[in-house]
From TrEMBL:
Residues 62-213 form the SGNH hydrolase-type esterase domain. It holds the Pfam family Lipase_GDSL_2. This is SGNH hydrolase-type esterase domain-containing protein. It comes from the Bacteria.
Amino acid sequence: MLHRGNLRRVVGASAIAVLLAALMAFYVADRAGAGMGRCQQHRADARERAAIVTGDGEPVLVIGDSWSVGLGQDDPARSWAAELPGEVHVAGFSGSGFSAGASGCGRVSFADRASAALDTRPQLVVVEGGLNDVDQPAAAIERGFRHLMADLAGHPVVVVGPAAAPSRAAMVPRVDELLADLSEAFGVPYVVTSDLELDYLADRLHLTEDGHEEFGTAVAERIADLDPTRPEVLRN
């Protein structure tokens, strides 16, 4: 038989345990809801940007991350991809990358989205990314890159590496070098952007409107400066 004092302690401990369990359940549910809300917003942003076509001429497809979507901009039509010559279509998804684990929003890696994006019948595919892969294992990035190249087989492809965004600059060189090596191994041109000095938003990760223009202009120029076998669609 429990003494009254012991009973109070047991009841008190039980109440605390129940309260902690409830708080933990609320915390987990809240985090899950926040994650779901974020992913839903990313999907909405992706659809909005995909519906925007800029320029004219031969169709160009950009597969990318939040930079291609124009996250943080009032007008997503002015994301850096709009600086490319041609009729530019964007298949972007914020937080995504070459590796499957770059995003927590499900199957949204570049390879996961490539096949559907090819419905635009592009004469050139520009793949931009890497900033969301900085914390991913090399093997995961390589696997995603290999799957992406398989999906894009038969299409002219240019890979645009990550810029040195201040919040992730220390981790960019590893991914930059890996993507350059993978591009060489698969025989696709690689555009380095880690040397660019760009204008960033307060989060030190995403570009301002001027930053998008600077990045897009530099990418267009560097693609145009590739070897003489480059697709004619990139000549201004």
